[in-house]
Amino acid sequence: MATREPLSAADRAGRADRAGRTRHADGIRLRIESVDVLRGLAILAMIAYHISFDLRYFGVTHSDFEHAAFWLSARASIVTAFLLLVGVSLALADANGVAFARYARRVARIAGSAILVSIASYALFPQTFIYFGVLHCIALVSVLAWPLRGKPRAAVAAGIAIVLAGLLLADARFDPRPLSWIGFMTHKPATEDYVPVFPWAGVGLIGIGAGHWLRRRASATNAAFAQSPRWLAFLGRHSLAVYMVHQPILLGALWVVVAQH
């Protein structure tokens, strides 16, 4: 029986590039497999964070998510990853010539999911329910950033300005809930998840620049992730569905475990 020689680096890069590009009847559509992997990694990090949060909710642990530097940094890193990938997706939508009507349907699914999150969180935490969390921000940023999807330099410049404004400016007039979703608040509102437009929209805009950079280097980035587990890319491709179902599953499983002890 003949033995198969190991793939060279060039062969792996070519295979990764073919995996990252799919041809359709309406032309060549670009899909960078590594972006799905990165989104999958962000989903895994989010699940790990929520497991830790749920353990505190059931009194198993006593982690200080509101003040401890580790948990604040972990949350900021996860939200940063998701918003950057929103911008990357916009850059790929531009490269593929995606019409706004088609893109709007996906944004509508995200917005609908955000509303469901608000309803569910109100049932669990009526005093601190999620009124503008990560899904709300992603839906809004996806619309606001659309005009800059093909202008990476302008998007990055605007993104940096928005991030700096959100971090450096504060005014007590933005503290009430009707305005706090914008940002600029002087203290974090009482809510289980809070991702205001300033500074987080800026991260999404910076992601547009990152997306165009990745698009120009699709072969190299796909090769770097060519050996990643396929289930990781699967998680990334179905990130919204995973986001919506993981917490009910985690809470239900932990309730069963905790109730038995």
Structural category is mainly alpha
Mean pLDDT: 87
Number of separate strands? 2
Strand content: under 5%
Largest sheet: 2 strands, antiparallel
How does this model look, in words?
- The chain starts with 8 loop residues before the first helix and ends with a helix.
- It has eleven helices and two strands, in the order αββαααααααααα.
- It is mainly α.
- It is globular, with a radius of gyration of 20 Å.
- α2 runs antiparallel to α3, α3 packs across α8 and α5 packs across α8.
- A two-stranded antiparallel ribbon has the order 1-2.
- The N terminus is likely disordered.
In terms of topology, how is this protein built?
Elements: H1 9-20, E1 21-24, E2 27-30, H2 33-57, H3 69-95, H4 100-124, H5 134-144, H6 152-168, H7 177-180, H8 197-216, H9 218-224, H10 230-237, H11 239-259
Antiparallel strand pairs: 1-2
